[in-house]
Each structure stands twice: as C-alpha cells, then as structure tokens.
Amino acid sequence: MGKAIIFCAPSGSGKTTIVKHLLSNRSDLGFSISACTRDRRGRNEIDGKDYYFLSIDEFRKRIEEQAFVEWEEVYPGGYYGTMKSEIHRLWNEGKNVIFDVDVKGGLKLKEYFGEKALAIFVKVPSEEELEKRLRQRGTETEDSLSKRLFKVKFEMTFQDKFDVILLNDNLEESLVKAEELYDSFNSGALQIEEKPLRV
Hints:
The protein is α/β, with parallel strands linked by helices and 199 residues long.
C-alpha cells in the first residue's frame, strides 16, 4: 500500500496550482480522478481523465456496493466521490495518491487512510486577499461571489483538523514548502502531531 497526500482549501487559495506542480515534479505521485454525476463541460473533458462521469443511478448503485472511500451529494442529484478502485489503480502502479478535494471530503479521506495520509490545508493570508483573487478571475457574479465567501468562512473553521496548515502568501515559496512536506512525509521523517504544523 502506498501513501495519500490530501490538499484542501477554500476556492482561490492556490491548492490546484500546488497539486499540479507536485505532479509535474514528483514522478512517484498519481492524481486521484474523482467520480461525478454532472455533465461534461464541452469536448475537452474526457471520461477517465478529468472525471469518471457516472449517471445518478450508477453512482447510487456504487454507494450501495461501498465502492467509494468518500462521497458527497454537493447539491441535489450532484454527487462527487473517490472510488476505492482508483486508489488501488495508482498504488498498483507503485505511486502515492494525491488528492485535490473540498474540506469535508479531505477530512473523510484523512480518517480513512489514517497514518498513511498527510492532510494539508492551504490558507491565504486573509479573506480580503481571497476575495481579491476571486474577483481577478472574472468568473464570479456578485451573488456567486457572496456564496463562495460565505463557504470560505465555514471551511476556515476546519483548518485545525488538518496535519499541516500551509500559508500561501507567496506562491513560489509555497511550491517549495509543498515539495519539502511531501518528501519529508514520504521518507518517514515528518512526524504528525495532534496540533497542525504551520508552515
């Protein structure tokens, strides 16, 4: 069995950038592809590469079969989850698994994998900075921005349940810190404490 590296953060914190960086710089890491029930967004999204696209009935059947490590109904009929078969696919390839998931999913994964997991919460310097980043994306309406920021406040309350809180106030430095954390955990040098390590 391999190990699991879990990245969680409010939207706009930079976690996806960090995860992509690690994947391109560590050949022993494999990305866990989630299953979902939403429609594909255009022709660019490929089944089995971006997501495993399932019908609602298929997803519910797999829930009954206990095929998921964790799953969540994010909105009515909108399911997302991590399949056990996906973890074993990567472990069988000799890779550790890296996750880019929401906070609730991340905590479920941390509980499932136990000491084989390193759960990292990526934090921005302030909610004001996060709002600025989300506005700069230009993809949010005032209403959707308001909902996202409300969710941010909620998600921030869970940060102390993670093994590491990574403050992303400088992306280049954060990428280096993420590499160091992974290497240290993978070698067994990083000791997981009850209180989160702040870096």
